[in-house]
Amino acid sequence: MADIKNKKEKDPMVLFVAEEKEPLFSKKNRKLITDxxxxxxxxxxxxxxxxxxxxxxxxxxxxxxxxxxxxAVMAASNVVxxxxxxxxxxxxxxxxxxxxxxxxxxxxxxxxxAYAYDVSKQLSxxxxxxxxxxxxxxxxxxxxxxxxxxxxxxxxxxxxxGYGLILILIAFFRELLGSGKLFGFEILGHKxxxxxxxxxxxxxxxxxxxxxxxxxxxxxxxxVIVWFQRSKNRKLIEK
Amino acid sequence: xxxxxxxxxxxxxxxxVVVVASALAIAATSLQPLQAxxxxxxxxxDILSTIEISTTKEDxxxxxxxxxxxxVALDQNGEIVxxxxxxxxxxxxxxxxxxIDQQRFPLYVADVDGSKYYVIPLYxxxxxxxxxxxxxxxxxxNTVKGTVFSHAGETPGLGAEITQDWFQxxxxxxxxxxxxxxxxxxxxxxxxxxxxxKDDNAVDAISGATxxxxxxxxxxxxxxxxxxxxxxxxxxxxxxN
Lengths: 239, 241
Description:
By secondary structure, chain A is mostly helical. Chain A has nine helices and two strands.
């Protein structure tokens, strides 16, 4: 018992020294960013953050806004929790994490409302989705509580990028197949009221797939992405 | 101090709550004037956009003063209860929650190169959250000049599309009264087949956004109903003159 306690108290010191010797972008640190993009993707492998992947992937634009916001929140909250990791009482750590995330998001929202009103109007829908995003809490709990600030920062960026990548992929297919647009531009031609008024694919009788606009379509697309990823990446197949 | 003791936990929690709460409180109060100004300018821009006047953030206030000649607020019977600055400051979201006999109904009167327009604020419920907007009527109190809609949390790509120009343009030229002169509002209709027909009190809905569309229909019908008597009175005065 005494041994464990001793080790625990020394831990931050050891980490600190080790970090100083390690180059900023060592192979291990680079892996913190690249792993979540494929081998350890938060959505397709860890199956976290599905709720927001369903809610906002009808169009590309909100998905990109969401990806950027989650990246900012995850990087910042990971660093804050990592700095506080030796002070946070174990029994209330989840509450502390929640307060840090919610506080950061609320603060940024207030600042945006005053100085970048248009951006804040776009983001207002996402504020709740970011605070309750399981990936944010998951990384705080699994990584930031046990690692230094720089590593936690990289981990936050990496996981948010992995999350955003899948979000954007799903949104690409849903917007293209569901409304024939990308970023709001009609790229499959214009659908008029009658066939004669239509152009592009619509003039040939093509119809948008209405199912793609509904939430279940996100799960279908996600399923295909997981399937594709596993067939390419043998490591992920469970024996 | 032992990190696992009750005292430490309690002290940590208290300090954390105080720090976070005061940071948020300071941010909220110090930024409040800027936020209020942004909201006011957005309101002016919304009102002006329904009568097809586009503005930038910088010139919104000037343009508003130039074109909006009168702001009044009516009671449920169409009698004027307040005028001017006080009427402009009415927050429809708060008003909407009151009993109908205590509500005030703001009305903005615009004069654009001799043509008179009535701009009426709207407020109602969509699928997930509130929706609101403005609708402007021409001097006859019947033909729609323009609309603008906004929402708090409708689904992106579906209900949220009510903020797009192509949807709002469908209302232009529509009538809020039927051929007998009875007030019927404008219906956002599923499977609409009228094309560009402006005389049927209906516009085409957005696929996949039925409930938001119904919300728009109800909002227009509910809110406009309180203005009809005032607008008709204005027109009879006009005829007498």
